[in-house]
């Protein structure tokens, strides 16, 4: 196979053995980068009411523009309006904020009216 090449020294011989003869004289082709899968955002969380792990499910109803958080053990539930950017973690964090706000109001001795939160609760 290499008999028709005139080899001057050992370096040229080593070069012939390391290069692929089929690609000699061609441009190097670019390697296609591998697509990395996008990390998935969790939709199941821990319940702050009953302290069970992985029992709260978040559901987004994009057409109705409603997000719902429900605990499968204690039945804790929260609904709020969402937009096209909302994710399950947003609904869960809003629920946590809502519970903390209620707790703070109860500690202060004020009565909490659900009518004040008409924007968040449907």
* Beta-strand share of residues: 15-25%
- Total strands: 4
Looking at the structure, what is the overall shape? elongated
Numbering strands along the chain, what is their spatial order in the largest sheet? Answer: 1-2-3-4
Q: Low-confidence runs (pLDDT<50, min 5 residues)?
A: none
Mean pLDDT metric: 79
* SS summary, helix count: 2
- Cα separation of the termini: 80 Å
Which structural class matches the secondary elements? alpha+beta
What is the H/E string?
A: HEEEEH
| Helical residue percent band | 10-25%
Largest β sheet strand count, sense and barrel closure: 4 strands, antiparallel
Q: In angstroms, what is the radius of gyration?
A: 32 Å
For the structure shown, list the relevant keywords.
single chain; 4-stranded antiparallel beta sheet; 4 strands
Describe this protein's structure.
By secondary structure, this protein is an alpha+beta fold. The protein contains two helices and four strands, in the order H-E-E-E-E-H. The protein has helices spanning 10-18, 88-108, and strands at residues 44-45, 56-61, 66-71, 77-81. A four-stranded antiparallel β-sheet has the order 1-2-3-4, with helices on one face. Strand 3 and strand 4 (77-81) form a beta hairpin. The longest helix is centred in the last third of the chain and has 21 residues, at 88-108. 10% of the residues are buried. The model has no long low-confidence stretch (mean pLDDT 79).
